[in-house]
Amino acid sequence: PMTPYDDVTPYAQALIAANEDRIVWGSDWPHPVFAGNMPNDGALMAQLAEWAPTGALRKKILVENPQVLYGFETA
Questions:
Q1: C-alpha to C-alpha distance for 35 and 31, rounded to whole angstroms
Q2: Which of these is catalytic: 6, 7, 21, 28?
Q3: pLDDT per residue over 45-56, tens digit each?
Q4: What is the spatial distance between Cα 6 and Cα 32, in angstroms, rounded to a whole number?
Q5: Rg for the chain (alpha carbons), in Å?
Q6: Dihedrals phi, psi of 4, to nearest 5 degrees
Q7: Residue 17's CB: how many other CB atoms inside 10 A?
Q8: Is 28 in the active site?
Q9: Are 60 and 25 contacting, i.e. CB atoms less than 8 angstroms apart?
Q10: Cα separations (Å) of 48 from 25, 34, 37, 73?
């Protein structure tokens, strides 16, 4: 299914390719002040898999880069 962000796919892929060590995932989940149709978070995460097609790249975006950015301890 299409998400509202399909049109930015080439831009997201280019940013990730150019700066994979600087990209983090962000959202406004749990959407506390959303007044319209609730976004499909599963579809958005599936879109991330399109933008970052390998598990290693998604781990970097979702786990490793935020650890560095925020100074989280690694396990």
A1: 9
A2: 28
A3: 889 999 999 999
A4: 24
A5: 14
A6: -65, -5
A7: 12
A8: yes
A9: no
A10: 9, 21, 20, 25
